[in-house]
Fold these 2 entries.
Entry 1:
Amino acid sequence: MKMKSLLVVTLLVLGCSFASAQTFSFWNSAGTLEYCNFNVITTNSGGVVGGYDNTTTGCFFTYNSPLIGFTATTPASSLPAHGKGAVMGDGLYDDSCFCYTGLQWTVWQSAKVSKKKHGFFSGPWGWVGVAGTYTGFYFGDNFGYLGAGYPAGNVASHGTTAGKGTSRLIKK
């Protein structure tokens, strides 16, 4: 009985250390195009960030891709998007082809959504992503504004935040 009680208390304590899940949508750097994928993440009290990149709802992929990372602050002079947020590895390329690609999409996203007034974004960009291969070759990046919630409307044709599709990057 003591073991069951200890297990229940442990699970309650661990469960309470995670904040509720937050949903973030992604816009291009002009603030005119919303991408089809969106992140659903939680951050625990130790700074670990986890969740998934939802690609089934708006992009119509078969599966969502995992996200894992940690809270991080990027300096203003180093990247187009900066501030307090999180750095996460994203299995987006493998998810897009349901295969192993050897490619990695890594994204920094702000802890706050971008400001929007009268339908237009203002202020600093809210996310930046970089792509590379298992050999260490860097091949691209993308950045833009960060929205709250799910993408609105029909965004399937807009593609994902990773920009280039894996079919153009992988030689078969």
Entry 2:
Amino acid sequence: MPYPETGQPLPRAADAHATADKWQGWILAAPGHGREWARVFDVGPDDSEGIWQAIAAAVLDAPVSTVRDRSPHGVVCSVGVELTINDRTAHVATAWHYADEEGSPRLVTAYPSP
């Protein structure tokens, strides 16, 4: 199966995954995007599973907006989604890495964006 293409759904989105260290060390952490998540959705590090479930569901049909970093190390692409968490709705930017053309998407980062 090919790498992602702009305007098309994220390949193998049903197999998307994220690592716990990414959530605790960057996405919901203070040096990362933690303040943005807290301000927009009133969530914190303990909410990572619910946020992940919302992101994983939203990217199933969302189109890829950019593809970059085509290199021997794989591809990184962006997908914007609308999430509703704690009765609050906002746009969330997500980035995904594919190690190779056969790999599944791994969440690189996610943050609420204007």
